Amino acid sequence: MSTDVTIVPSSVQGTVRAPPSKSYTHRAILAAGYAGDTTVRDALWSADTQATARAVTAFGGALERRDDGTLEVEGFDGRPEVPTDVIDCGNSGTTIRLVSGAAALADGTTVLTGDESLRSRPQGPLLEAITDLGGEATSTRENGQAPLVVTGPLAGGSVSIPGDVSSQFITSLLMAGAVTDQGIEIDLETALKSAPYVDITLEVLEAFGVDARQTDTGFAVEGGQSYDPVGGEYAVPGDFSSISYPLAAGAIAGEDGVRIEGAHPSAQGDTAIVEIVERMGADVDWDRGAGTVDVTAALLEGITVDVEDTPDLLPTIATLGAVADGETRITNAEHVRYKETDRVSAMAEELGTMGVETTEEHDSLTIHGDESRLEGATVSGRDDHRIIMALALAGLVADGETTVEGADHVDVSYPGFFSSLEELGVDLERQESG
């Protein structure tokens, strides 16, 4: 059974709290696994982050979630055990990539897989890097995609890897490299896409007492280090990828204003959404000290946005463009095609179902706001949390009701998304479907 959600055109107002960052939570849970005993506060407990928690347990750690959401993690102290079973990463690309590095440290073989979507996502460069560093890493189908078979242990060393497929490959190697004998030095063969996500990794590693750094040609981490956060605790900041949805809701349907709490500054590239919404014409005030963003709707104008470093924002920007006057052009977007679904095509096709004119190219998406009128329709969420949430936003201002199929997949990153919309005054209805 899945859930469809029907959204009635609605205005929004009020206050909503941002969920914790999925990107930081993944890294914090795995870093706590590399450590001894750690308390992780304010963690996002979603389908994806639970997959990372299961992996930590599979490597010999233990994790308990308390009633207040705090995670108590007993780590494997930098020495992961060989799992007794296959690690199922579900739909989480972050999980399978980050824990592949941990698997390469185990003295034996680990098998990692996931759902159909995950098994179509590229892993090849990371497998090659692990092999170049002295481990063994293969794809069972010899296509660079899961299921993956990873055998360790690797000692570390130098490796070259492309930077334009996934920044998660670099994160995986840096996190594992800290507990190798030799450390790992990474030379980037191509420019790094989604660079802020590696900044997040460096920030989390520093909080856990691990020294990693950017070099002239890539990144490096010394070996023989220990994961040991100050006071044995780490607190996860709010998630700007998730903040983009209530922020956009306020920009298109918040005539009386929306306040978002939990928006404290961090290394997240997706903080760019605040500037993007402001550039398009909404009234936005970010109080960085208080961690609040206030947004009020206004007439929006199309702009050009480069998403090289902020791929997760494409669906949100596409919906904003459907509401705005003029053209909204989203560029440097090729890597957005390799997410839970091809998000470039998904947004073009589903917005098209709602009457929006778009031009899709290999690495860009242009939304022709002047030539479009948003009309309520039944659209597919594509089993992709970000597509679902972006289409739900479009439903706020469409002409007529909009039904988003398979809406329960928001659990991947923002389990309370539709409840948050209801708190802001949105009229919606959930229906069970086969």
From TrEMBL:
Entry annotated with the keyword Mitochondrion: no
One protein family per Pfam: EPSP_synthase
Keyword entries, A-Z: Amino-acid biosynthesis, Aromatic amino acid biosynthesis, Cytoplasm, Transferase
Pathway(s) served: Metabolic intermediate biosynthesis; chorismate biosynthesis; chorismate from D-erythrose 4-phosphate and phosphoenolpyruvate: step 6/7
Single GO MF annotation: 3-phosphoshikimate 1-carboxyvinyltransferase activity
Compartments (UniProt record): Cytoplasm
Gene3D superfamilies reported in the protein's UniProt record: Enolpyruvate transferase domain
GO cellular component: cytoplasm
EC number per UniProt: 2.5.1.19
Reactions performed catalytically: 3-phosphoshikimate + phosphoenolpyruvate = 5-O-(1-carboxyvinyl)-3-phosphoshikimate + phosphate
Binding-site residues for phosphoenolpyruvate, renumbered to this chain: 22, 93, 121, 168, 343, 386
Amino acids binding 3-phosphoshikimate: 22-23, 27, 166-168, 194, 312, 339
Binding partners and assembly: Monomer.
Name recorded for this polypeptide: 3-phosphoshikimate 1-carboxyvinyltransferase
Lineage: Archaea, Methanobacteriati, Methanobacteriota, Stenosarchaea group, Halobacteria
